[in-house]
Design brief:
This protein has 203 residues and is of the alpha+beta class. It folds into 2 domains: 47 residues; 145 residues, Ctag/Cox11 (Ctag/Cox11 (Pfam 04442)). 22% of the residues lie in helices and 32% in strands. It is built from 1 helix and 10 strands; from the N terminus they run αββββββββββ. The N and C termini lie far apart (68 Å). The C terminus is likely disordered.
Length: 203
């Protein structure tokens, strides 16, 4: 084999190695992109980062003789023709007291629509202490034309919020939900609960 042939063979082998490496990198990035949303959501739920509330399976056993105002906010994204609102704009439970509130959603479009809600808490520091026992978030909800669904939320504010230096002076918390069209729906889209009969689901 001549030197020219040897160099050509080496160059082709190097190009092939680079191509394979690029394909592996692209595949890895695609996989990371698909995993990033659920992983980020899990990270936020565990840490309370970015105002994300905590997921719990049981009620608080400690109730303080101190109240905190909780305000409820409701939004819908463009492309989702729903009326979405809290039944009550605010309440003042005792810190540690488990309470239930409700939102309602009405489909104002002439066809079935599926939506899903995401949420956050402000101020963000309070997210780690806002514990939801029952919620309609992150699950798909389909509403028929004109159908209205009552969606309860059961929560309590962790008594530790009154001890932590960065949160002990917080007197008002806002729980905000935004409904988006579901990307996997057939007629239109929206994200949330499941069916009308599934009312509330655990977060």
């Amino acid at each position: 084999m001549t030197n020219t042939q040897t160099k050509s063979s080496t160059r082709n082998g190097g190009n092939m190695a680079i191509l394979v490496a690029c394909l592996v990198f692209v595949c890895g990035m695609v996989g990371a992109a698909y995993a990033s949303v659920p992983l980020y959501r899990l990270f936020c739920q565990v840490t309370g980062y970015n105002g994300t509330t905590q997921r719990v399976e049981q009620y608080s056993e400690t109730i303080l003789d101190q109240t905190i105002r909780v305000t409820f906010d409701a939004n819908t994204s463009s492309g989702l023709n729903w009326e979405f609102k809290p039944v009550n704009r605010s309440i003042e439970p005792k810190i540690g007291e488990t309470v239930q509130i409700s939102y309602t959603a009405t489909n104002r479009s002439p066809q079935p629509v599926t939506g899903m809600a995401v949420f956050n808490v402000t101020p963000m520091e309070a997210g780690a202490y806002f514990n939801k026992v029952e919620c309609f978030c992150f699950t798909e909800t389909t509403l028929k034309p004109g159908e209205t669904l009552d969606m309860p939320v059961v929560f309590f504010v962790d008594p530790e919020i009154a001890k932590a230096e960065e949160t002990r002076n917080i007197r008002n918390i806002t729980l905000s939900y935004t409904f988006y069209p579901s990307q996997g729906a057939n007629p239109v889209a929206g994200l949330n609960d499941g069916k009308a009969g599934d009312s509330a689901k655990k977060l």
